[in-house]
């Protein structure tokens, strides 16, 4: 309403002060545009302070010059006729109707323009919100992809390290093991020489471990039996625990330094050599004659309780060694079967992977980029599964072989203790024979 009054005042000021005809004046919309914003105060100031030169002179004489002009106009209009007034009123009415229709059209156009602008603003706002949400989703997806890439890179590094360890273990397992000095010396080449040296080191370490353990048990037996054959002092409980812990740490270090196949082969070689030595020693003994002579002399001796233990005598060493050798052969057969089973599982996994890759390639032909990502992830997961399965199988097999090696060590210790008892028995028989000879003389 204030804008309309200002437009009317501006038109009146232009027509009255500068005698401009109403036809050449701009329309109301242009005048509203001129009076919009900061132009409103400017035009108000101009209307109140800018006047025609004649009007300024009149204003000097009378400050209420507008009222004087209106009075003059009233005096002039009184002299006009009724027809002229009617005609003038009709012209004004027509002019007002035209202005009203023009204003209505401008209002409708403005309303349509406002509606289109509001629709455009709403669409722009929706697009902006959509773009912001898309940007947020893209940022979250980018962070997720970065995190997944970091995780995948870590997994790939772990898998590569595991692959290297497994390859080294596989290469060390597939290495030919030679324990015979003659056959190894007959071959030429630096590689075979270095291999023989490494194997000799494995055999030497295992011999040292076995000898240390046998000496420890002998010292324990001597301390329990309170014999005087050894010059060593009796060990206390703390010393025994310290010796046992030292031996255990040394054994763990040796077992971790060499491949299981080399350790198993060295143990088998040591068992076979001990078996040959025991067989040679047993063949050199005349146990029947010594036992018969001892049985004859037991009747009047304080060792008469030995005859009661004949029913509980230990099985022969040959039988124990044959049983141990059969178990070793059976373990080797199981190991070969396990390796063949691992190869079959690897082939089966490769076939399944090929089938899965074919299915995935048939399903995701339209999404090539995603297919490559899924395929790489699938291959990585398959490799992880295969390597985890191989690792678990190798770990279980290593545990079994370790347990088997420990059992073999226990068997060797028992054989050594039996051999020691045989030697003591021979010494006792020889002592009794010397005593009998002395009595006979």
UniProtKB/TrEMBL annotation:
GO terms for cellular component: centrosome; HAUS complex
GO biological process: centrosome cycle; spindle assembly
Coiled coil: 86-113, 339-366
Pfam families per the UniProt record, alphabetical: HAUS5
InterPro entries for the chain: HAUS5 (IPR029131)
Transmembrane segments: none
Keywords: Coiled coil
Protein name in UniProt: HAUS augmin-like complex, subunit 5
């Amino acid at each position: 309403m204030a804008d309309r009054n200002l437009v009317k005042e501006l038109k009146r000021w232009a027509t009255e002060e500068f005698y401009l005809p109403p036809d050449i004046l701009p329309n109301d919309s242009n005048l509203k545009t001129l009076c919009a914003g900061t132009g409103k105060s400017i035009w108000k100031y101009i209307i109140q302070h800018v006047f025609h030169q004649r009007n300024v002179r009149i204003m000097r004489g009378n400050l209420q010059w507008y009222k004087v002009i209106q009075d003059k106009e009233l005096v002039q209009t009184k002299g006009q006729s009724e027809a002229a007034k009617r005609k003038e009123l009709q012209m004004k009415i027509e002019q007002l109707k035209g202005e009203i229709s023009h204003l209505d059209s401008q209002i409708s156009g403005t309303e349509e323009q406002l509606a289109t602008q509001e629709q455009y603003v709403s669409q722009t706002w929706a697009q902006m919100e959509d773009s912001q949400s898309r940007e947020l989703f893209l940022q979250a997806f980018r962070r997720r992809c970065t995190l997944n890439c970091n995780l995948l890179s870590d997994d790939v590094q772990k898998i590569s390290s595991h692959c290297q360890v497994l390859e080294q273990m596989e290469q060390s397992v597939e290495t030919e093991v030679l324990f015979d000095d003659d056959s190894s010396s007959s071959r030429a080449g630096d590689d075979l020489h270095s291999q023989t040296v490494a194997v000799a080191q494995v055999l030497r370490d295992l011999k040292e471990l076995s000898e240390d353990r046998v000496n420890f048990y002998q010292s324990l037996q001597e301390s329990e039996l309170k014999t005087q054959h050894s010059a060593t002092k009796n060990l206390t409980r703390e010393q025994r625990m310290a010796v046992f812990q030292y031996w255990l740490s040394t054994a763990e270090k040796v077992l971790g330094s060499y491949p299981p196949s080399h350790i198993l082969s060295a143990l088998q070689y040591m068992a076979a050599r001990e078996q040959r030595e025991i067989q040679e020693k047993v063949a050199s003994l005349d146990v029947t004659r010594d036992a018969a002579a001892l049985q004859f002399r037991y009747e009047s001796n304080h060792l008469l309780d030995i005859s009661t233990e004949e029913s509980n005598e230990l099985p022969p060493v040959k039988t124990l060694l044959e049983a141990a050798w059969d178990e070793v052969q059976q373990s080797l057969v199981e190991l070969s079967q396990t390796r063949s089973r691992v190869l079959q599982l690897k082939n089966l996994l490769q076939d399944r992977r090929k089938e899965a890759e074919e299915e995935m390639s048939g399903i995701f032909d339209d999404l090539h980029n995603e297919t490559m990502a899924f395929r790489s992830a699938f291959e990585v997961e398959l490799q992880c599964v295969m390597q985890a399965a191989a690792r678990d199988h190798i770990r279980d097999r290593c545990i079994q072989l370790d347990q088997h090696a420990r059992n073999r060590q226990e068997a060797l210790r028992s054989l050594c203790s039996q051999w020691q008892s045989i030697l003591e028995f021979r010494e006792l028989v020889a002592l009794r024979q010397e005593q009998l000879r002395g009595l006979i003389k």
